[in-house]
Specification:
Layout: E1 2-8, E2 23-32, E3 36-38, E4 40-63, E5 70-97, E6 104-106, E7 109-118
Antiparallel strand pairs: 1-2, 2-7, 3-6, 4-5
Protein name: Arrestin-like N-terminal domain-containing protein
Family: Belongs to the arrestin family.
Domain Arrestin-like N-terminal: 16-121
């Protein structure tokens, strides 16, 4: 059996809270109970924000009546959905090996790999 444990070092006030410009640090721990072949091991750090909001807007209707040269407001409303997504960080770091690299056998036991990632300003 293979177990993977990912631990982050505490950030602000000893909590797992990080802000722009901070150095995110952690450890990946592999526990193997038998030999296992690997090409590599990587950590992907991804952080984003998503916002969604709605707004009720008045409907407009095309008016071709006596004075209808355009659109006219109605008393009907509809809900308009808005959304915004922003990616703050998306990095991949190899702790050992590489994608498509040669395989090698890792001995049973506990293996620890430290990593860090500088968060963008």
């Amino acid at each position: 059996m293979t177990k993977v444990n990912l631990q982050f070092e505490p950030g602000v006030d000893g909590k797992l809270i990080y802000y722009s410009g901070h150095l995110l640090k952690g450890v990946v721990e592999l526990k193997l109970d038998h030999p296992k072949k690997f090409r590599g091991l990587h950590v992907t750090i991804f952080g984003s924000a998503r916002a969604h909001w709605t707004k009720r807007e008045r409907k407009y209707r095309r008016d071709f009546g006596l004075f209808g040269n355009g659109y006219r407001r109605t008393n009907d409303y509809h809900t308009v959905h808005y959304e915004g997504i922003e990616v703050y960080v998306n990095t991949r770091s190899y702790l050992f090996g590489k994608s498509g690299g040669p395989t090698f056998e890792m001995a049973p036991g506990t293996h620890r790999y430290e990593f860090n990632c500088q968060l963008p300003p």
